[in-house]
Amino acid sequence: MSLRIAFCASRAPIAQAALASLTNRYGDHAEQGADVIVALGGDGFMLQTLHRTEELAVPVYGMNRGTVGFLMNAYSEHRLPERLEAAEEAVINPLVMRAQTVDGAVHQALAINEVSLLRTGPQAARLAIHVDGKLRMPELVCDGALLATPAGSTAYNYSAHGPILPIGSDVLALTSVAAFRPRRWRGALLPKRAEVTFEVLEHEKRPVMAEADSQSVRNVVRVVIRSEPSVEHRVLFDPGHGLEERLIREQFV
């Protein structure tokens, strides 16, 4: 039986052209009931697709038609069904963020890469950090801080000088962004089961926003983050180019 492939693409002209060519060649099935979803674009579009289809339990195979492609495979129109049949699967659990704002509202969102807190005013943020209910850092003065999954450890976390995490490590990276005090504090490695709470100190004077994979909440006073094992994102990679191999290779460039 042939694979039932559902295609989707970003709005970029190069992705739309690829969508037209691939659907003409291989047909196009509805995502509901498909065997695999092929996403055409960059990493941003891949994250959107994973979030949008998280309830379908269908694996997603990305092909790079964007500017960044860490989660994507090389683009080729040839022998696509064979590539999909041979692909390696990585299962990613996202983070769940619960962000409370100054008006008392609580906003929840999932993040495949990371949850970040960033200052939105001219002055540095002041954060207190609790891990599993225990105060670990009474004051971090910084431009921001983030909690990253292994899948997201090469994204914003790596740019902020955080560690790259092996995909099967069951570890989260807590990383500061431009820390002023303690000046040399870069972050911590935490077990995947840990619950991290950020309290925003002097939130009126030093406003902070929280962001979960580009879903933003402004004027937060408290943000609670933990891994969500009940949600599984299935991502497909060409053999020898899986997520674990990419994470290792990235550390030697």
From TrEMBL:
UniProt record, GO biological process: NAD+ metabolic process; NADP+ biosynthetic process
Record field: catalytic activity: NAD(+) + ATP = ADP + NADP(+) + H(+)
Binding residue positions for NAD(+): 43-44, 113-114, 143, 151, 154-159, 178, 215
Listed InterPro entries: ATP-NAD_kinase_N (IPR017438), ATP-NAD_kinase_PpnK-typ_C (IPR017437), NAD/diacylglycerol_kinase_sf (IPR016064), NADK (IPR002504)
Positions annotated as active site in the UniProt record: 43
Localization per record: Cytoplasm
UniProt protein name: NAD kinase
